[in-house]
Fold:
Amino acid sequence: MNLKVAIVDDNTFLIHAIKEKLSFFEDVSIKHTSLNGSELLTQLEHNHNLDVILMDIEMPVLDGIETTQMVKQKYPHIKIVMLTAFDNDENIFNAIKAGADGYLLKEINPEDLYNGLQETMNGGAAMNPSIALKTLKLLRNPDSIKNQSDKEEISLSKREVEVLEQLSKGLSYTIIAENLFLSPSTVRKHIENIYKKLQVHSKIEAVQKAKNHNII
Amino acid sequence: MNLKVAIVDDNTFLIHAIKEKLSFFEDVSIKHTSLNGSELLTQLEHNHNLDVILMDIEMPVLDGIETTQMVKQKYPHIKIVMLTAFDNDENIFNAIKAGADGYLLKEINPEDLYNGLQETMNGGAAMNPSIALKTLKLLRNPDSIKNQSDKEEISLSKREVEVLEQLSKGLSYTIIAENLFLSPSTVRKHIENIYKKLQVHSKIEAVQKAKNHNII
DNA sequence: TCCTAGATAGGGCATTTGTCGTATCGGTTG
DNA sequence: CAACCGATACGACAAATGCCCTATCTAGGA
Structure:
């Protein structure tokens, strides 16, 4: 099995170091490297035949957290392992929330990096022990996690929230209309407006976004 | 450095197996073993000069979760690593809540077990990758913790989980097909099968149910 | 008072989805 | 070996969805 890997890091020297570490392993091939998130996204549009992306966090233009979120949204099949110098709680938690499949530190040795990639492909999560401990602490104490996701204010009307609530249960337009004593046309219109406000294009996306913003 | 270890397991045969695994390493010494929690607590009253306790979960009299809680309360300096056969979400989460410093599976090989102990002593958390992934999912979706009321076993194939993951992002059949290098027909068929297994009839319901069961 | 936002309602249309079929191939297991 | 499951793939069709248009009525803010 050949592991198709991409590396994203704004430091060319570090990209080189990672390449070197992985060069020991024949079944790993570096498909491409990028200096920031938007460069990666462009490359993915051409070719998303990838297994794992090794992603730095601190990067100009589009940082590793946002990039992870966007890549996971469009290409959920690609595993993303954060590979960064810093391991503060905020970064770790945001990376996990963004959908990261693992979190390693740059000081890692070649074998552990390789094992991490393998474990990730086998449906596990690559994590070094100190990171693992931090995730345990986060789980023990969920209050320490503050949601910063609502940076843009989203204001739905009362009626729209009601409709969204019904949407989230998986009900169809006609059923929602019955429940709220409305015409199906009205429900459709409400949903159109909701989509515009949330900037989404489907039920699932709307519900997901609404949940992230604590609207429902 | 000599690692002082205790083993708690109601199965004497398994205690022996763990001892055997650790016998390869000279700097590990098994200080004592117990068949259940209360036996351990009695022993700790006589001697709590211990580094790590390897703790089973399923035990009579006083199970591993409760015991962990009590030991951590009285002797917070002693590290506790769960060593159990089962890795269901409930056990993992409860063990973490109780204060466990790690969570390993009994099938582990000697080296990994030894490394786990070392990492734990170095201020990390011992965890195998599949457990690590489960903790990540729990962090992403804390609601799935409370919602373990209906514990009917749902077994989706690896491929089905992949498809479900893509579904959860709001992607259409055709996009999913592109991402996974499949024909749209195949994606449809997978989704049909997923719906049957989950007993649902729409994307949203499927995603909701999968999240509640910590599948995605 | 005028204007805007929200709630209501309808029509139309291309696309997607959910649900039926059927079928082949490879591996596992009894 | 047979039976079964999972992964693959195609066709058909009704229903649902997403998105565009227009329109009326009401309440509240500029």
